[in-house]
Amino acid sequence: MRIEIICTGDEVLTGKITNTNFSYMAQKLEDAGLSVHWGTTVGDDREALLTAFQLAAGRADAVIVNGGLGPTVDDLSQEVAAQAAGVELVLHEAWLARMQDFFARRMRAMPPNNVKQAMLPATAEMLDNPVGTACGFALDIGKARFFFTPGVPRELKRMLEEQVIPRILARSGAPASIYLKRFHSYGLGESHVDQLLTGVEALDPDGGVKLGFRAHYPQLETKLTVRGTDMDDVRRKLAPVTAEVRKRLGNFIVAEDDETLEGVTLAALTALGATLTLVETFTAGQIAARIAHLSGAETVFRHGTVSRHLDHLFGVALPRESDQDTTEAVARAAREQTNATHALAVLVELDEGADRIDFGGTIWIGISTAERTAFRRSRILGGREWVRLGAVELALDCLRRFLEGLPVVERIDFEKV
Amino acid sequence: MRIEIICTGDEVLTGKITNTNFSYMAQKLEDAGLSVHWGTTVGDDREALLTAFQLAAGRADAVIVNGGLGPTVDDLSQEVAAQAAGVELVLHEAWLARMQDFFARRMRAMPPNNVKQAMLPATAEMLDNPVGTACGFALDIGKARFFFTPGVPRELKRMLEEQVIPRILARSGAPASIYLKRFHSYGLGESHVDQLLTGVEALDPDGGVKLGFRAHYPQLETKLTVRGTDMDDVRRKLAPVTAEVRKRLGNFIVAEDDETLEGVTLAALTALGATLTLVETFTAGQIAARIAHLSGAETVFRHGTVSRHLDHLFGVALPRESDQDTTEAVARAAREQTNATHALAVLVELDEGADRIDFGGTIWIGISTAERTAFRRSRILGGREWVRLGAVELALDCLRRFLEGLPVVERIDFEKV
After folding, report:
1. What angle do CA B247, B248, B249 make, to 5 degrees?
2. Whole-model pTM?
3. Is the backbone peptide bond immediately before B150 cis, with ω within 30 degrees of 0?
């Protein structure tokens, strides 16, 4: 099954906006076990669009076209699609009615130029857009099935998942059920995780499980794409592989699927009825910024402090070089003085010198509750930004480990020993 | 002059990484008065690469190819370029020596497979890469001049600016000097600024000035691309337009060129020998995270507080609904208790209800010094994230205005009155 993507629009072609729709579509197709073979980007230009459609029609089995379905004169997708397919544009009465209803429910009259969005090539199949006025459509051009989708990301996402991918899967003869299981880990590099997971795909002897990765430093996403005849089959294939991945990556898995490290940490605090105080220095509010705005944080997040004047913190005198006692004392004092059940203190000492790839920093993490204290020291190299990103993630992960009863000190790939 | 871009690599084609190199290149070309006509994305696949090169060679005058210059077997650009041009690969002795030197200075032996990076098509002109081991090269395929560039963004940027764009400009016969002037504004939407700047291009009667925009909500970047016969000519053309843009956008310009809002604010505080204290609620440390980590902030940024338990802040009792007196009292108390010269307090009250597009919040901003106090109240709609982004930007901008002696209260397009 050869699939191509054509992205249209002057804003994308001139780089005015970064084309995140392309990577989104390509990933979603990969997650469904499909692959993109070719990508084309053209502007709002009749001749370029026609050439792009014709070239793709001659090479591909399925083509996803993104953008150009709006109401304005520079939105040309329907018109050029009709031309490429050699058919007329006709009014799609049902979609026109849907649009009129859309405007009526918002107490507005439909502008006349929106009628254009209901003009579809005569041979097209309409693709529903439940969240906008640009309907999509599918039609044959040459030997390929074309799927036209809106450029607005929110509208594209719904249509791709609900309308386009199921149709492409049906044409590809792939099994009916596909499921994507995701693990988010922190502390292990991609090649390390790849090596740790050697052979897990083979736990499904039918070859229905495919392993993949996506790195978002400092986290890594491990993806299992599972194909089966139905969801029961998928679950049967997935269960032993999921168990094995959890066993092999162990404490390094910070979250699964749509969960996040900060979400898991907040949930653990909420479950304990806990309140949290943060103390930050060079991380400069970035730890607070990950957790304090979340829904539910208003009852958990008691207090955050950012200080770059490192003489005293919560009455604790800071020596010239940090040590374990100072870090723990700051965490304890912050917890007591802000009446929180938990405190996390993250002190960072940057090296001297220029901000280069070998520039580093030392990170001192203290966690305090009424019952116990935990401490972690780490060295991270890679420039100021890298040290800061690393310190934020390491601190949140230490708190997660503390709350989950896991060891707070465990060697990670990103630190210098 | 017809220009195409070909991006290569499985990681880009599968969406594993978002293709920011494409938009970067397209913008840099636009800034130089050049336009991209067509973009192609293909994987690390010999046949696809050859087809892409041949198609572009038949259509374009200049083609920029990005990626595939690495030392591993899946890096195919040199090899397929030679095939498309019908020439052999030959060892480029000078680049080999440069690479050997590169490794020697790092006390490492050059791995044998790096030799591959010095194998260039026989007819190629080498393009220098001062920051990596992948040299670029230019050669003719069909009627087009091809420019091969590395995929690593940092290496691409240097080579594009220093090697590729000057060569394309020389071929296009465009004037020798091109300059890009940028203004960053906050508070006015793109169409509003476009309307305010009507006619400024005409201040250069030769048509050498081109106006453009790039929106990064909540900021807007206004760009003037100026072409002249030399830099004196550029300066002469630019001066009246720059003065006019500054006059028309006035207080809304937060920074120019490579400056940022937070950098300008930090510089103003530094110039005063001032120290800063921040108090945040729903913005959750995101204001601190913009400014407290910057170089130089260690002497200016005294203290940041994030609280989501809104009963007391610095001893000030918070009423159920915020008011001007409370906000100003919090700023004053925070300044006094942390021994800072300046305090910025940003209280946010979210509306009740679900997080939808019409969900909003009220923002209360107080600024305090020993001599004076400033206050700003604003309403922003658009969902939780939108309110938070808006509150962070509005607060930083109020502080900038305060420090620059401009009115802190001035109507912006993004607020609901």
Report:
1. 100
2. 0.84
3. no
> What is the least distance, in Å, from the CA of B136 to any CA of chain A?
22
Which residues from A are below 8 Å from B25, CB to CB? 15
B278 - beta bridge partners?
B304, B344
For the segment B206-214, the average pLDDT, to the nearest whole number, is: 87
CB A306 within 8 A of CB B292: yes
Answer yes or no: is pLDDT of A174 > 80. no
- Alpha helix ranges (H) inside B250-351: 261-271, 286-291, 297-300, 324-337
Q: For the segment A234-283, what is each residue's pLDDT rounded down to a tens digit?
A: 999 999 999 999 999 999 999 999 999 999 999 999 999 999 999 999 99
Q: What is the mean pLDDT of residues B12-34?
A: 93
Residues A317-338: tens digit of each pLDDT: 888 877 899 999 999 999 999 9
Phi and psi of B79, rounded to 5°?
-60, -45
Distance from the first to the final alpha carbon of chain A? 48
CB-CB: which of A24, A292, A309 is closest to B284? A292
Backbone angles phi, psi at A204, to 5 degrees: -100, 105
Beta bridge partners of B313: B316
Secondary structure (DSSP) of A92-134: -HHHHHHHHHHHHHTT-PPPGGGGGGGEEETTPEEE--TTSS-
Res. A176: pLDDT tops 80: no
Alpha-carbon distances of B59 from A47, B3, B142, rounded to whole Å = 13, 9, 9
- Which residues, in sequence order, are CB contacts of B106 under 8 Å at separation 6+? none
**Average pLDDT of chain A?**
93
- Close Cβ partners of B120 (under 8 Å, ≥ 6 residues apart): B78, B89, B90, B92, B95, B126, B135, B137
The Cα–Cα gap between A109 and A91 comes to 19
Residue where the block lists tokens 């956008």: B249
Directed axis angle between helix B165-172 and helix B20-31, to 10°? Answer: 40
For residue A76, how far is the Cα from the chain centroid? 31
Least confident window among A380-384, B366-370, B403-407: A380-384
**Residue tagged 């708190």 (tokens):** A399
Instruction: Give the minimum alpha-carbon distance from B294 to chain A in angstroms, rounded to a whole number.
Output: 9
Mutate to test the interface with B, among A4, A41, A295 (most CBs of B within 10 A): A41
- Which residue, among B191, B246, B184, has the nearest Cα to B219 in the 3D structure? B184
* Chain A partners within 8 Å of B15 (Cβ): 22-28, 30, 36
Q: Give the separation between CA A95 and CA A365, rounded to whole angstroms.
A: 58
Cβ separation A298–B292 shorter than 8 A: no
Q: Measure the CA–CA gap between B290 and A127, rounded to whole angstroms.
A: 43
Q: Is residue A33 very low, low, confident or very high in pLDDT (cuts 50, 70, 90)?
A: confident
d(CA B36, CA B410): 40
Structural domains of chain B sorted by starting position, each given as residue range(s) with its CATH number in brackets:
3-172 (3.40.980.10), 177-256 (3.30.70.2860), 261-404 (3.90.950.20)
Distance from CA of A141 to the nearest CA of B (A): 20
CB A88 within 8 A of CB A48: no
